[in-house]
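Trying the structure run again after the queue cleared.
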Amino acid sequence: RKRRRRFLDMLHRAMARKKFLHDRRRVARRIDSNVHEVAEMRRRLVQPSGARLVERWQETREEVAASKVQTLWRSVRRRRAMVRQVGRQERERAARRLQSFVRRRRQHEREDQL
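Done. Tokens:
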């Protein structure tokens, strides 16, 4: 029992460490991308009519992000529809199988009566 408990504790610590490192890497990536975005904004602001350039750049980024979200949502909807369709097909297949079984059974019962 103690050995099992120690093993489970070690496993739990390893999983917690893995999650911690994953979260830390995700935050580091986000910070790095934010640093690059700020540098890009600074470069654009220095140029003539920089504020307008930054605004256009930001709008473009938002449009790209919105299209990505829309694509993801469409794929989720398609997947849900596919799951519904597969379930419906399985039910229809099961109903056909039951119906054919009942027909064969009735046919045999009629043949036996004759």
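The mean pLDDT is 93. Worth checking whether this holds up in the mutant runs.
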